[in-house]
Each structure stands twice: as structure tokens, then as C-alpha cells.
């Protein structure tokens, strides 16, 4: 059992200059065999392992990660959390996650800095207004807090927005979800890793999967850079690289992997205390606790695994940001980066069994997976442990691309693609 | 961001082009006889290769013609460009 983090442990460790904190997670060599192996040590993968151990008593499991945990999209996103999706299935999925977020720091004994500062989505044309009003109604029918704001109410909630009717795409209104907000992305990975490790999960870093061994229609194990690991259940949570793993098992997925960029400015004093997203002009911005503006750009339209992305995408986003927030015109950008996102044709994720027994995929989160981390882990753990989906992720099966029962969330996915 | 050598216009900036996805996906010859599985395979399933991939591109802000490209998606290096209807170069 790990020692609890508290004000007392902080004081105690300050006497030894914080040099004697115990490791938050071990660095084990892989065992020969596990009951289940999770491929991918990002937030979703670590959460899956955590809930497998906690709720389904599967303690002989491992997470294998080709780099370091949280070094992929978990550490590259813009940390926005919300659940204002249109369809019932999505509302169930994302609000399940949001409810877990609300008590996650206490549950993990790890401060994930969840901050319910509200998320506003802006409307810039009449169709936006109609779509956002429709989505607000749909949200409320599903028990999700959402309100529609007039232009004046938008200005009141976030005074630095330029609501002049003279700009190219004037603000005609917006929606607000007050329970939505942000969290510290690294802390989510670290908190789940620490929690899973405490229950006996092996977190194996620098261990890349090279192949999946099958016996007919069942999985037998995985080949990795640290040798062969025998297992009957493999949960793949590899985000942009999901298709690469699927190809190893001879499967094809309805995914395309594209670079998505984000950037942060130099740190400044508090200026924006909420998250503002604008789908039509493609600009979204919030401010981190360090004071940096956190800005999300769009995806490139071609398949690429380079984690870079094109300059004109950033330029387009910053043009829109400057029109909406003239006050930022002299801000300097500090860092820019890209992550590889796995995009589904219907902009909804896949949490599903496959045609191969013991092989499960959690992928297709595209440009908006971070918000779902705890719910995704919980439901995927349920799917793996019971070999059946939970009712909340039943709609997000792989078979929907055959049956045609798609969950089209292109409107609610704030990054247009 | 990279340069693309359009077979009709020459070398231009990538932002003039629109990516058209995986190339050489053949339209079913007998659509009425396709099963739902085969339709899903044709419509949605993609190789999404990390490495050398065959794809279609359109010079959307130029000559507006379509062509094919062989590109390494792990570093965005273009290996070959050939016109529609031409046989892909053997890799």
C-alpha cells in the first residue's frame, strides 16, 4: 500500500529536502504471462488498468508503453473537459466521464487540478445558432447542464471577447456548460499510474509492441522489444497508432491518423477564466494555471505520423484568435507541438470487441479524447473483464460501420475534420 | 508542410493541395451484390499505414486535377508522383 499524500506527508518530507519521497510507480521487467495486457500507457490505458484492478479484481495485468507514460497525446492535448455532445449515446459516455472527474482527485489521492471553469461554444452564423440551440435542448433532455447565451451574455461571461457586429464572423451567441472545464493532463496519467501500481499492475515503459501472436481466432500474446508476453486478453489503447497495432493482428480499422497541433503563449497574469471554443472560425483558448494561453489548432487533412503539422494551420487559428480577442495581439507564442489523432468517419470513438477473441480496441477518439479519460478507462475495463460492453459503450462498437448505426458527432467535436 | 511536385504545374506548396485519402480503392463492380461487411470494408476501413502509403491528392488551388502520390507517412517524404490511371511504381 502506498503512503497517502497529505499536508502531513508534505511537511514530513520537507525536513528531508523532498529527497525521500517513495517512487509513485515501480519500473518492473515484464513477467512471462499476464491475465491481460494493455497496449499504450496514456491516460486512457492507465485508467483502463486502474479500473480493471479496482473494480474487476484483475491484478495480474500489465501496461506496455513504447515511450514513457503520458508522453503521447495525454501530454499534448489542450486539457478541455466537457460533455455537451448531441446524441444520447455520446451524452451517456461523456457525462459518465465528467461525473468521475468531479471526484477523481479524492479517489486517486492525487491532485489532477480539475477546474470547473465552464466551457463556452460560440456561434458565428445562423446555422451555428440553430445547431447550438438544438444541442443545448438535447443536452438538457439528457440531464447535462447547458444554457444558450445571447451575444450580451457571452460578453458578460467573458469580457475580452470582441462582440462587435463588424468583425468578419461576429459572435451571434453561444452555449455554456458550467460543469465543464480543464484538468492537469500529466497529473491524470501519473495519478492513474500510481493508483494502478499500488494494486499490483506492472507499468512497463520503453517497451514497444512488435507483433500480436494469434492462434486461429484467439490471441496468445504479444511480441515486444522486451520479449514475448503471454496473455489471453489484449486491450489496445494506442490512439494515433491504433491502425499500426491492428495491422499486426490482420485487422483494418475505420481510422485515419492526422497531426493535430496546439500551442501556448508566454505566461501572463490571469486574463481569461473560462474555456472558449469556436468551431466555425476554428479557435479555442483557455489559460493554464501557469498563465500561458493554451490554444488548440486544427488537423492537417493528410495522413501523417510525424507529430508536426503545417504552419498555415497555426496561422489560420491565430488569425481567428486575434479577431476574437484583439487584446492578445502583442502576445508571443512560446511553444508549438503536434500529436497524432486517430479520426473515425463519424467523429465518435470505438470501445469494442473485435472479430479476434481476446483482442479489444479503445480508439478513434480523434481530436477530443482527453475529456473522456476516466469514463473511457472504466467502460473499457468493463468490456475487457466481462468480454461484453457496458450499456454506456455498447453503441460505440466496431460493428456500427457495418450496420450503419453511426454516432455522428461532427457538430459537437470542436475541431472540424 | 512540404512541397509537392504537381505533374501538371510543377513544384508548389502543400497548402495549395487537398489530400484525398488512400488510393487504388476500387469501386465495387457489382454494388447490388455486396454484403454489408463488404460495403463497410469499401466505405470505411483504411490501411492508415505508418510508412510508405499510396494516396490521392488534388491540386485544389491550382489546376484542380487529381493525381496519385507515394509518400512515407512517418516523415512526410514523397517517394513518387504519378497521374491518375497510371500504374503505381513498384516499391
Characteristic terms for this protein:
A: alpha/beta, 8-stranded mixed sheet, 11 helices, B: mainly beta, two-stranded antiparallel ribbon
Write structural notes for this entry.
The complex is a heterodimer of chains A (417) and B (91). Chain A has 417 residues and is an alpha/beta fold. Helix content of chain A is 28%, strand content 24%. Chain A is built from eleven helices and 20 strands. Chain A has an eight-stranded mixed beta sheet with strand order 6-7-5-15-16-17-14-18. A six-stranded mixed beta sheet of chain A has the order 9-3-2-13-20-19. In chain A, helix 2 (43-56) packs across helix 10. The longest helix of chain A has 16 residues, at 126-141. In chain A, 52% of the residues are buried. The mean pLDDT of chain A is 96. By secondary structure, chain B is mainly β. Chain B has a single domain (3-83), classed as Folate-binding superfamily (Folate-binding fold), CATH 3.30.2270. Chain B is built from one helix and six strands; from the N terminus they run E-E-E-H-E-E-E. In chain B, strands 3-4-5-6 form a four-stranded antiparallel beta sheet, with no helix packed on it. The longest helix of chain B has 8 residues, at 36-43. Chain B is globular. Chain B starts with a strand and ends in an 8-residue tail after the last strand.
